[in-house]
Amino acid sequence: MPILARHSPVSEMSITCIAATLLAILLLPLLILLWATESRQQRARRWRCDGWTQQRIADRLGCSRTTVRRLLAA
Fold it and tell me: Helix, strand, coil shares of the chain as percentages rounded to 5?
């Protein structure tokens, strides 16, 4: 009967860690690009969906609450 080769848990874990690290390194520039190109309106909408108040968004963007209201309404 043939003997089945067993993979050691350490080598499988190392391969998984290496693959995860490479994936993170490859995706990081894309995430930075998406973040850098996000408009004020998109940020305001994202923060509002996250439960931020209009005043908190205004403080973060450095504008008035009225401007935030207009950004969210547009």
Answer: 75, 0, 25
**What does the alpha-carbon distance between residue 6 and residue 25 come to, in Å, rounded to a whole number?**
30
In a domain, 1, yes or no: no
The answer to the question of residue 41 being in a domain is yes
pLDDT in tens, 48-69: 999 999 999 999 999 999 999 9
CA distance 45 to 51: 10
Number of domains in the chain: 1
List of residues 6+ apart from 61 with CB closer than 8 A: 40, 43, 44, 67, 68
* Rounded Cα–Cα distance for residues 29 and 46 (Å): 21
Total-model pTM: 0.59
Range of the domain at 45: 10-73
